[in-house]
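Researcher: I'd like a structural prediction for the single chain below. Treat it as a standalone chain; there are no partners to consider.
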Amino acid sequence: MITNWPLVFFTVFSQFATGLALFSWWKDTHDENPSLRGWGASAVCAAIALIASGFCFGGIASGSWLIAQVACLVLLFCAYGCSRGAFILGIGGWLSGAVCVAIQIIDAIPGEVFSTSGLFPIFLFPLCTVVLGAVFSQLVVLGEPENHKDHPAGRFYLPLRICLWIMLVITANAPIWPWEDTYMARSAIILMQTQLYWMGVIFSGVVLGLSHMGRVTLVLQAIVAFVSIFGLRTAFYADGVHGAIDMSTLFRVM
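Model: Treating it as a single chain, here is the predicted structure.
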């Protein structure tokens, strides 16, 4: 299996940072106390994503990927500013993160936008962003109350469960569905043969189960969710099609 590891780290951690920024901004607009730790964690994730992007593209990228890098840099700046009390930068933080994710989606589409191979990343990337943001933003270590009586299953259990169910259905069916789309059919072969992909699918179901067990599993939910998404992303960029590594063998294999 050939995987573009820097691209995996760049996309996973930039989406991680964007999700944290979104939920930290939401908490800032609804809570009395600001989410300083959430913004700090978002800044750290954005920094990791930027470092990884340097290895992806050998430094500063070009074209649309340069826009993604700049958007990630803006996210880092805004998240760091919010962690220091400049909460006016909050909306700019998650919006710049959303731009970064949107660019990643566009560059991951191998064929037509509204083909199945195009819709796969259009759904997958935002779902990963929300899942990572929700599952980590409800942790005590990021500023949540230890015993939240109003939310015994975690503060953001609802968006977490909804996105996990959608992601589970999409990812479980992607490798086994008889796709007419040539690109998606090629992807299905790769996904079917990638153990990390199936680990990601199974682990997303595990997070759903843990979510119904209450706040005692919040830390475990976060760990398993991250491993799940990292596994799915590793397979997504493995050996070609969406990762544009193996496009030369597409029609020869099919």
